[in-house]
Design goal:
Largest sheet: none
CATH superfamily: lithium bound rotor ring of v- atpase
CATH class: Mainly Alpha
CATH architecture: Up-down Bundle
Distance between the termini: 64 Å
Shape: rod-shaped
Number of helices: 4
Number of domains: 1
Helix content: over 70%
Order of helices and strands: HHHH
Length: 125
């Protein structure tokens, strides 16, 4: 029985999706973390308006995970995608694309949970 041929673009496409998932995880986690820290900070500022600068700094710290996701995406686009040009076998390109997708999924989950818990930590002051 003959298997269907894999399109050669599938591997690089999976790699780009992996980088995008890492960025999306950082974005989602950052929004949750900033929301948690910001809501706690709003109560602090309502009691003592002089604390606005400190609250703003602590509430913005979970956004760092967004930058880490962006770094992963840029690394995939600039360093990993050129490697696919040298791969002639679509099956190997597919396997390498799945590996990069897996890395992106793990990175996205790690960044998302890290940013959310960073927001919890920042909300405690």
């Amino acid at each position: 029985m003959e298997t269907a041929a894999l399109p050669p673009e599938l591997g690089p496409a999976l790699a780009v999706v992996g980088g995008a998932v890492a960025l999306a995880g950082g974005l989602a986690g950052s929004s949750v973390g900033v929301g948690i820290a910001g809501s706690a900070g709003a109560a602090t500022v309502s009691e003592d308006p002089k604390q606005f600068r400190n609250v703003l700094l602590l509430a913005s710290l979970p956004m760092t995970q967004t930058f880490y996701g962006l770094i992963i995406l840029l690394y995939v686009v600039t360093q990993v995608l050129p490697i696919f040009q040298n791969i002639t076998d679509p099956a190997i390109a597919f396997q390498k694309g799945l590996m990069v997708l897996g890395i992106g999924l793990i990175g996205g989950f790690a960044e998302g949970f890290s940013a959310a818990y960073q927001g919890v930590t920042c909300s405690s002051g």
